[in-house]
Write a structure and sequence with these properties.
With 243 residues, this protein is an alpha/beta fold. It has 2 domains: 181 residues, Phosphoglycerate mutase-like (Rossmann fold, 3-Layer(aba) Sandwich); 33 residues, no CATH class. It is 35% helix and 17% strand. α2 packs across α3 and α7 packs antiparallel against α8.
Length: 243
């Protein structure tokens, strides 16, 4: 698999929002709906094993639609004006299914940018192996990752610190934006976790404590709102809309 490269947008929907409305005051991040890999379904072909092409399950598609209904029902000031979406199929599908729920409500869709830095943590040569398989086949690598969970880089892949570095460019893009007061990121659990590191200026031990308690669930929503010091977390891994 070739890693996505480039500085920003892989796909942009023309924006009709005016300039100089100020920086974004509201930021959401949603993890994609349940994927086949999340459900423990083993890929049957090399194409199905390609991380960029992993699809949603029927449950995941329902989760994406439920998220869309929740989003469309929000007050106008609480709906996103811009969506930044991972280029991976499971994330793009999540947004398309969510966006389809806007139609019956008459609510306008936000601008869309498929952003090539929002992909999931790339595990390189170990991309298609489960944690238990890595432990069994590559015990030294497994031990190294256990010793340094955020800094370990699998062969040909990324560490969580690498993910944070590229997401710093996404955060800077949001800071430069003066057209959209509210932004939604559609991506992956590793992206949500490392966004917390960047936006909340968290230490490694704080990030590890969050991960220990549980990563963002499928189609869960995390929310930050801007105050005088920057973005402040107001909810993490919210799933009430999926009930």
């Amino acid at each position: 698999m070739k890693l996505p490269t480039g500085d920003a947008a892989a796909s942009v929907r023309p924006c009709a929002h005016g300039e100089n409305v100020g920086p974004a005051a509201l930021l959401y991040a949603v993890r994609h709906g349940q994927s086949t890999v999340n459900a423990g379904i083993r890929p049957a072909t090399p194409a199905e094993a390609d991380d960029m092409r992993i699809e949603l399950t029927e449950l995941g598609r329902g989760q994406a639609a439920a998220f869309g209904r929740w989003l469309a029902s929000r007050p106008a000031a609480r709906r996103p004006e811009l969506v930044l979406c991972s280029p991976y199929l499971r994330a793009v599908t999540t947004w398309h299914l969510a966006a389809a729920e806007f139609g019956p409500t008459g609510v306008d869709l936000p601008c869309l940018e498929v952003h090539d830095l929002l992909y999931d943590r790339y595990r390189g040569e170990r991309s298609h192996l489960s944690i238990s398989e890595v432990r069994e086949r590559f015990p030294r690598e497994f031990a190294a990752e256990q010793a340094d969970p955020l800094g370990f880089r699998p062969p040909g892949g990324e560490s969580f610190h690498d993910v944070a570095r590229r997401l710093g460019e996404v955060a800077a893009r949001i800071e430069r934006d003066r057209r959209h007061r509210s932004v939604l990121i559609v991506a992956h659990d590793a992206v949500v976790l490392m966004l917390r590191r960047i936006l909340e200026n968290l230490r490694d031990d704080e990030i590890l404590a969050i991960a220990e308690d549980g990563l963002a669930g499928n189609a869960s929503v995390t929310t930050w709102e801007r105050d005088e010091r920057g973005f402040r977390l107001t909810s993490y891994d919210e799933r009430a809309h999926l009930a």
